[in-house]
Fold this sequence. Notes:
34% of the residues lie in helices and 23% in strands.
Amino acid sequence: xxxxxxxxxxxxxxxxxxxxxxxxxxxxxxxxxxxxxxxxxxxxxxxxxxxxxxxxxxxxxxxxxxxxxxxxxxxxxxxxxxxxxxxxxxxxxxxxxxxxxxxxxxxxxxxxxxxxxxxxxxxxxxxxxxxxxxxxxxxxxxxxxxxxxxxxxxxxxxxxxxxxxxxxxxxxxxxxxxxxxxxxxxxxxxxxxxxxxxxxxxxxxxxxxxxxxxxxxxxxxxxxxxxxxxxxxxxxxxxxxxxxxxxxxxxxxxxxxxxxxxxxxxxxxxxxxxxxxxxxxxxxxxxxxxxxxxxxxxxxxxx
Length: 303
């Protein structure tokens, strides 16, 4: 069956605790509220793509427990094809997230059973058949690299969610057509202290588009030698969990729509901003009309 986007990587069930402030070592803080919410890097990105009207397919591992059943049902309810996912006799990946009520910033503590890992042999040609774009995270890097190389050989666009650096990260970046990197990644890879200089240093290793998410600083994208930047949108943040994943989903949508780099960044920044006004990763996923409304409000305030 054809689809627009295949995502290979993480799903998660998150226990989200809202606190008056993130605790210091040894400090005791009373929780204001606790909710069980859904997320995971690739799962949230695919939910964003689906909400924006793209046809999506998820490839990853669910645990054989209540959490695994819950997250799979949520993805399927949102129209995401999970037929190529696998189920393992292990607890599903989960996280404990502390959210600072003052700012919406969060700290994440997560656990993932080794049995949930994906290997290169799990990535077969049928998982990307009929797709236009492959999106991978760097949780199981060998599998992600194998999938990216396979997709590139079949003519697919490949995007990434890279927020950590290992000795395999350069290979994953090389296999992608549009690596999307967390802010600290370019500096860690190049030894540069400045993100712009680090991104330009990566140009010698990659001749395609290179994108970096900057949180409250917005985002940037290097196209050839031209650097495009876009500021973040000012919103009253409730929970920043999943904002980067939503950014990636919206960027993918804009890319497949054929938008120019500066339009892609603003659209993705607006999507991430809307997501920050709600609790949870998947719970924060916006629709096109909400993103366009924020873009229109911002344009109106600049006149």
